[in-house]
Each structure stands twice: as structure tokens, then as C-alpha cells.
Design a protein that fits this description.
The chain is an all-alpha fold. The protein contains 15 helices and 2 strands. Strand 1 (95-96) and strand 2 form a beta hairpin. The longest helix has 27 residues, at 102-128.
Length: 325
């Protein structure tokens, strides 16, 4: 059995019902919107985010979920989908998970409006049922994701990124949404604020490890989701590169910054830079940090009694680290 199927096993029924509820949540009176929604739903990914919501809810409640759990999972998936649709417009990307993106098929204006529609649907789903605690968790995540993207753009222009700033960028850009999933799962079944915060932190740690793993893919050749060296071409300062820059003497520092700023489209120069990052220990350093985040996440899990839900979450934490793409 594939790892993702193993993770889904204890929430198999919930995920099936969620699919139906999520489809209903996206419905509209506008035929064009329904056509696009249908296209989105039929090309869904692994659905990691709803899985986090249900697994955390069941772990925190001793195996129960409720309507709030389903709404929380639907809201997070609506918001996440909205951000992906908008991202493809911003990045002028024509593909998403191997299929044409919304903007490639229906043009930018429609894609932006669809993203806005999904965002508002998500917010209204919470408001209509008085889930203001869930709404607050989601709204904080949306704000932080926007701030993280803008902080990264600002830093890419000046390339003055420190390790602390890098962690702040990935915490906001990537980790905050997974943190929200775990907080939503807990919040849907308990009023214990400490437990909700503990699960939020758990999700944040997984998100940090996930993003560092993604950054490491930039330095590996293999069947991954993005070509090698793409972060350098996009002038993104990731952890392996930041570490190598910090270890370098002044002439080498100038060469690295010049390579990222002015020669990021030069394939030979990019290959030389990747080789330098590898030889200076950048990958090992980033891996150490990734494993530290993983360990902290597992330590939080181990405060819960052993159940199929905790086991599945442990599998999820390890999958984040061991995945090949």
C-alpha cells in the first residue's frame, strides 16, 4: 500500500464524505464557475491539508469528528485552492500538477475572479455557521501567506537574506497553512486553547521541514516536481545557499551574489553555483535543520496516546522528509 493510502486509512470514510461536502461548497448559480470548479475538483492533489484536519481532530477527540471538522477541512481547501489559482496568475504559470492551469485555459481575469470567489466561499462557510474561532485561524493564515510572499519578493531584490529571515519567510509562506489545518482540526473538537496551540505548533514544524525538503530538491537530479536550479534562476535565497554564502570569504561571496543576481540564466554558472553549495556543506546543514524540525514535531505527537490517528500523523511527518518529489 502506498504511504499516502496508509495515512488515509483511519480517515477513509471522512475523506469520502468530505469530497461530497467540498464539491457542494464550491457550487454556484453561474454555469462557467461550475465548469471551472468541476475542472479543479477532478484534478485535486493528495489532499494533505484536509487529511491533517481530520487526523488531528480524531487524535484530539479519541476518534470523533463533527460538522465543524468538515467545515474546517472545506474552508482550508477552498482557501488553499484560491491561493494556487492566484499564484498561477502571478507566476504566469500554464501548468499545475501536470494539467493546464485555470489562467491557461480561461485567461487571467477569469482566474483572478475564480480565486476571489473561492476565497469568499470559504469565509462565508465559516460565517454562515458562526464558526468565528475557525475563521480567525484561517484569516491569520491568509494574512501571513501574503506577508511571506511579499517579504520574499522584497528580499529577492536585495539578496540580503539571513537565516532568521529565511525561516520567517517559509514559516509564513508554507508552514502557516499546515499550522492552520492542525489548529482547525483541534479547534473543531475541543475548547482547550492550549491543545489547539500545541497542534498549531505541530503543523508549523511540519511545514518548516516540508519547505526545507522542497529547497533541497533544487540541488538534486531526479524525477521531482521542479527542474534543478529553478530557485537560483528565480533569485530565491534558500537555506543551502544562505549557509554557503555565510561560510564564504569576501571574493567568493561577491561571486555567489553576482551569480544569483546577474548570471541566474547562465546554465554553466548555475551548475557551478550548485556544485559550490554542495561542496561547502550547504545540503548537509539544511538537512540537519530539517531533521531538527521533524524531531520537534514527533516530540509533540509523542505526548498523545498511541492510536491509529497518531500513527498516521507520524507517518505523515516522516513522509514529508522522505518523499522523492
Amino acid at each position: 500500500m502506498k504511504v499516502v493510502e496508509q495515512i488515509k486509512e483511519p480517515i477513509h470514510e471522512e475523506m469520502e464524505l468530505f469530497e461530497k461536502k467540498f464539491h457542494d461548497a464550491m457550487s454556484s448559480r453561474v454555469a462557467l464557475l461550475n465548469r471551472i470548479s468541476h475542472y479543479i475538483v477532478n484534478r485535486k492533489g493528495k489532499q494533505m491539508r484536509p487529511m491533517f484536519v481530520f487526523l488531528v481532530a480524531k487524535m484530539a477527540s479519541g476518534g470523533k469528528v463533527n460538522e465543524r471538522t468538515y467545515r474546517g477541512a472545506s474552508v482550508i481547501e477552498l482557501i488553499h485552492t484560491a491561493t494556487l489559482v492566484h499564484d498561477d496568475v502571478v507566476d504566469d504559470s500554464n501548468r499545475r500538477r501536470g494539467f493546464f492551469s485555470i489562467n491557461a485555459l480561461w485567461k487571467n481575469k477569469i482566474a483572478v475572479l475564480v480565486g476571489d470567489y473561492l476565497l469568499s466561499k470559504g469565509l462565508l462557510l465559516s460565517i454562515d455557521h458562526g464558526d468565528f474561532d475557525l475563521l480567525k485561524i484561517i484569516s491569520v493564515a491568509v494574512r501571513e501567506m501574503s506577508e511571506g510572499e511579499l517579504l520574499q519578493i522584497e528580499k529577492a531584490r536585495r539578496l540580503d537574506i539571513t537565516e532568521e529571515v529565511y525561516y520567517e519567510i517559509i514559516r509564513q509562506k508554507t508552514a502557516t497553512l499546515i499550522a492552520a489545518c492542525c489548529a482547525l482540526g483541534a479547534c473543531s473538537v475541543t475548547n482547550d486553547e492550549e491543545e489547539v496551540e500545541r497542534m498549531r505548533r505541530f503543523g508549523e514544524l511540519i511545514g518548516m521541514a516540508f519547505q526545507i525538503k522542497d529547497d533541497l530538491f533544487d540541488y538534486t537530479d531526479g524525477p521531482i516536481g521542479k527542474p534543478t536550479g529553478i530557485d537560483i534562476k528565480e533569485q530565491k535565497m534558500t537555506l543551502p545557499l544562505i549557509y554557503s554564502l555565510n561560510q564564504a570569504d569576501r571574493p567568493k561571496k561577491r561571486w555567489i551574489i553576482n551569480s544569483v543576481k546577474n548570471h541566474n540564466k547562465d546554465k554553466v554558472r548555475v551548475r557551478e553555483l550548485i556544485a559550490y553549495v554542495k561542496s561547502s556543506g550547504g545540503l548537509e546543514y539544511a538537512e540537519q535543520k530539517m531533521f531538527a524540525f521533524q524531531k520537534e514535531a514527533l516530540d509533540i505527537l509523542n505526548t498523545y496516546p498511541k492510536t491509529p490517528y497518531r500513527d498516521a500523523l507520524e507517518l505523515m511527518v516522516n513522509y514529508v522528509i522522505e518523499r522523492k518529489k
